[in-house]
Write the structure tokens for this entry.
Amino acid sequence: MKKNLAQNISANALQLVVNQVLGLGIFYILSTSINKNDFGQINLALAILLSAFNILSLGIDQLVIKKIASGDSVQHTLSLYIFHVLLAGAVFYGLLLSGRTFLPHQTDIYNIVLLIGIGKLMMFFSSPFKQAASGLERFKLLAYMSVISNLVRCLSLMVFALLHIINLHNIIIVFIVGDVIELLVCIYLFKTATKEKLIVKWDKANYVKLILESLPQSGVVVITSALARFDWIFIGFTLSAIKLAEYSFAYKIFEIATLPMLVIAPLLIPRFTKLFKQESPHNDHLKLVIRMEIIIAVSTALVLNVCWAPLVDFITAGKYGAVNVSTIFLLSLCMPLLYVNNFLWTIYFAKSQLKMILNSFIITLLVNVAGDIILIPIYKNEGAAFAFLLACLAQTIFYLKKNTITELNAIWQYLLICTSCALFSGFATRYFIANTFIALPFAVLLYCVLLLITTQLKLADKKRIQMLFNW
């Protein structure tokens, strides 16, 4: 039975909301229960490991979704990808472990990476089952698979916090246990729900073919992995673990604030893959989707900035609020650009324009790395945030130049007008409203009025959005 967009969004939204709430709980407990130095070291280790395992996927994860959505054999495709993650993961961790031989005096960060790496290796092994569920549009199944690790970690850390036994050693144990349980649950749920046989066998010809097919996307994955955490790693090694703790806190909240994009993004790949197989794709639907995405992105950024200092300083006892006001403002400006970039990337990926996507990420990486190297030593965390903004803007400009869908030529206007409305609303609120409880509704109301005046929101949108949910 064909599932409509509303059903998929509901299932995907549920797991993302639960995951983000649990992730926020984990992040809050860690940031308030341990000192900034330990918190920064944990985040540096996670940045290194997550970047490494993302690179090891070689872009095959996205290709698996596309292949299964296109009707390829689930069992055969999954077998190839499971073989890849087992091989790549074992080689990587073997090399990581060999560092104990070549490093006579292991640093704290190396030991933390080595231990947390055990858990992240298990998480890497579980990724094929999640990608297969996404390609099958089994988002309810994906939801169960995705929340288990964060659930175990959050509940365990809450218990440790109540018992006042949170320390670096216990945190590392919790991270490992959570990821191991996730792997076991993913295997069990996938076999039970899909009835697919999990057969992993060496198929040289098809494995080489899969690697070659993923090569353009592999370059993208390498670049995006470096792009996603280069600033964290650079801050951690060139400034201090304390500065990384402050920046990572702001960046993590910024990532959580992109929840609506995270809800929509996994649904678009199978949907767009099928859409562009049609002779006459519904380009008007695409125009409406991106306009709504930009409005949501900018409104989220507005709320984040209005609430930031008073709320974050209150919940962290003054540790991460005021110190990050400029950083979160610069990061929030990236939010609508990320939505646009993800939307256009999905279109180009669905149309198999992988080399063009690779070129876009090369440009983005060069801008971001150059910006980090130049700006972080001078402006510290604010320099990292501004470098990321420049990189996002460069990618957006590149994608818009390559756009061939006439209905999407107005994207830059949506970006400019919506962002201007939010900036005016935010600065007007700060100037005229001193009361924190009044500031947020005033800013949101003013923003909505400006959107109606500038016709970014229209009364006719309600009916069109209802039609979109049955798309």
Notes: Residues 51 and 226 are 6 Å apart (CA to CA).
